[in-house]
């Protein structure tokens, strides 16, 4: 996530906060750039930032294919217990074990993007288990499965 902020945000500053307790570890990464959803919206010519979230939640989306596969955010969001992105006036929330991601709107937060991650210190989840869940049965390490997103009671795939 830090690398994405460097390569994509166009911002000047990144703040990282990590809190580890006996139970879990929480991390936030915040930049002062253009905002992830706005950047995707503009790059793909989408109607609004909510559409950018839908494209992002599918995985395999990047605005810089020379440096990124577009799978980093997708897999990072599946490796932790909770993964949230707040950018502009839009909020994306993914909770491990839940079939659907949530998209919420709120008053414009600030410039930039903030990513929140939380992981139990005692998880049995491994990178291999996560990759295998989304990899095709051929054994190729690309992925081809998608998830559903929910906004105000509407489900998109």
Distance between the termini: 24 Å
Find the structural class using helix and strand composition. alpha+beta
The residue-averaged pLDDT reads 79
Strand order of the largest sheet: 1-2-6-3-4-5-7-8
Order of helices and strands: HEEHHHEEEEHEE
- Share of helical residues: 25-40%
Coarse morphology? globular
Biggest β-sheet: count, sense, barrel? 8 strands, mixed
Number of helices: 5
Oligomer: single chain
SS strand fraction: 25-35%
Q: Over all CA atoms, what is the radius of gyration?
A: 15 Å
Helix and strand arrangement:
Elements: H1 2-8, E1 14-20, E2 24-31, H2 36-44, H3 49-57, H4 72-79, E3 82-87, E4 90-95, E5 100-105, E6 113-120, H5 127-134, E7 148-151, E8 154-156
Parallel strand pairs: 5-7
Antiparallel strand pairs: 1-2, 2-6, 3-4, 3-6, 4-5, 7-8
Helix pairs in contact: 2-3
Short description:
With 157 residues, the protein is α+β, with helices and mostly antiparallel strands. It has helices at 2-8, 36-44, 49-57, 72-79, 127-134; strands at 14-20, 24-31, 82-87, 90-95, 100-105, 113-120, 148-151, 154-156. Strands 1-2-6-3-4-5-7-8 form an eight-stranded mixed sheet, covered by helices on one side.
Explain what you see.
By secondary structure, the protein is an alpha+beta fold. It is 26% helix and 31% strand. It is built from five helices and eight strands. It has helices at residues 2-8, 36-44, 49-57, 72-79, 127-134, and strands at 14-20, 24-31, 82-87, 90-95, 100-105, 113-120, 148-151, 154-156. It has an eight-stranded mixed sheet with strand order 1-2-6-3-4-5-7-8, covered by helices on one side. Strand 7 (148-151) and strand 8 form a beta hairpin. The radius of gyration is 15 Å and the shape is globular. The two termini are 24 Å apart. The model is unreliable at 143-150 and 152-157 (pLDDT under 50).
């Amino acid at each position: 996530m830090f690398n994405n902020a460097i390569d994509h945000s166009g911002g000047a500053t990144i703040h990282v906060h990590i809190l580890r307790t006996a139970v879990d570890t929480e991390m936030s990464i915040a930049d002062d750039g253009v905002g992830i959803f706005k950047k995707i919206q503009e790059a793909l010519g989408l109607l609004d930032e909510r559409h950018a979230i839908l494209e992002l939640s599918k995985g395999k989306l990047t605005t810089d294919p020379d440096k990124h596969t577009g799978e980093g955010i997708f897999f990072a969001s599946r490796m932790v217990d909770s993964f949230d992105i707040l950018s502009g006036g839009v909020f994306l929330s993914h909770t491990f074990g839940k079939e659907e991601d949530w998209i919420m709107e709120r008053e414009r937060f600030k410039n930039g993007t903030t990513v929140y991650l939380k992981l139990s210190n005692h998880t049995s989840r491994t990178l291999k288990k996560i990759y295998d869940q989304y990899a095709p049965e051929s054994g190729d390490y690309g992925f081809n499965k998608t998830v559903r997103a929910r906004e105000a009671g509407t489900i998109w795939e």
